[in-house]
Amino acid sequence: MSADEFDPEIERLFARSPQMPDSALFLAQVEQKLQKGSQVRFLALSLAGVIGGVVAVRETLSVSLTAGDGIVAGNALGQGIRSASLSIQGLIQSGLDELGLASLELGSMGGMQLFWIAAGALIAVAAAGVMRLTQDL
Amino acid sequence: MTRSLVDRHDVELAALAAAGGRREFGELVRRHGSAVRGLLRRMGAQPSLADDIAQDAFIQAFERCAEFRAEGTFAAWVKRIAARLYIKRVAREARYVAEVGNEEAAPATDHAGIVDLDEALKALSEPERLCVSLCHGAGMAHPEIATALNLPLGTVKSHVKRGLDKLRARLRPQAGQPLGSAQHVG
Question: Tell me: the pLDDT tens digits for A55-109?
Fold first, then answer.
């Protein structure tokens, strides 16, 4: 047999594989790994989403309270929003304290830093939402 | 009426798997799992390592299913992923000695004059076996193998040629006997 005839023949031999007797077990192991990977990814994204969401809400409240002095000062509605915001902020702060995030001193950061942190958090929340949606679909 | 998974073509199943279809991907694993595991064993991996790498290759294939362009077969695509994972693993464990290679293995004993590919591959040195398997089993080109193994192209070509020469000698058909006559499934 010449080399020209042999090369395709050897490829045909490689293409023919014996069926493994434990194929079902192999399939189950692959499915198990896929499931595990998906759970880990879901947990990581959920955690990132929750943390990002909490930080974003906290920052939003903080910014609106600061801005509120100039924009809605003297306005009754503004006062109502402000007092409601304060109580929500208090609730979030106590929640953060319980989660051990009380030391998160965002107030000491500059405006741009706060902006980027809030933007990053919002992007993380949006990404988590999109991922969850694609998983559901 | 919905077609059952077994009636669907690989390309169709891969497209559904790319959209997150686990059942469809499971069917692809069922179809090609043995082929990928077999290739890794032919490349020289121990059975447990071959199975580990084959599983990782399928996981990677699932995550990258959208990249499958159906330019070749799905099986060939996964085999290439598996081959690359095996090369990485071997390189990390420094088990592959590029230039020296192992002592040539003793020729395998054949039964009733019939030698199949798996037996014949045992007659090759480790580098020859790896290069031949990558070239003819995983469908990688010589330059691609040279890059993956970090070997000179000429060395890869030599390994493939010597390996094929040995296989040719071992697999020379008996009178009226087709090549690789052991029982195989497609």
Answer: 777 777 776 655 555 555 456 555 665 666 566 566 666 666 666 666 655 555 5
Is domain B101-177 annotated with CATH 2.40.160.60?
Answer: no
Domain-embedded: residue A121:
yes
Give residue for tokens 């040195």.
B125
Token couple for A82 = 């402000």
User: What pLDDT was estimated at residue B12?
Assistant: 92
Query: CATH 1.10.10.10 in chain B, residues?
Result: 101-177
ipTM over cut 0.90:
no
Is domain B1-95 annotated with CATH 1.10.1740.10?
yes
Asked if B136's CB is within 8 angstroms of A10's CB, the reply is: yes
3-state secondary structure of B19: coil
- pLDDT tens digits for B130-141? 999 999 999 999
Contact B138, B144 (CB under 8 A): no
Q: Does A31 fall in a domain?
A: no
> Half-sphere exposure (CA, 13 Å, Cβ side) for A68?
19
Residues in chain B: 186
Interface of A with B (CB under 8 A): 1, 3, 6-7, 9-11, 13-20, 23, 26-27, 29-31, 33-34, 37, 134-135, 137
Query: Which tens digit of pLDDT belongs to each residue from B61-114?
Result: 999 999 998 888 999 999 999 999 999 998 877 655 454 444 454 444 444 444
Contact B179 A9 (CB under 8 A): yes
Structure tokens at A40: 């880990």
- From A106's Cα to the closest Cα of chain B, the distance in A is 37
- The structure's pTM equals 0.64
Measured between beta carbons, which residues in chain A are less than 8 angstroms from residue B51? Answer: 26, 29
The phi and psi torsions of A106 (rounded to 5 degrees) equal -80, -20
- Range(s) of the domain holding residue A86: 57-104
Find the CB nearest B34 among A1, A20, A135.
A20
Does A30 reside within a domain? Answer: no
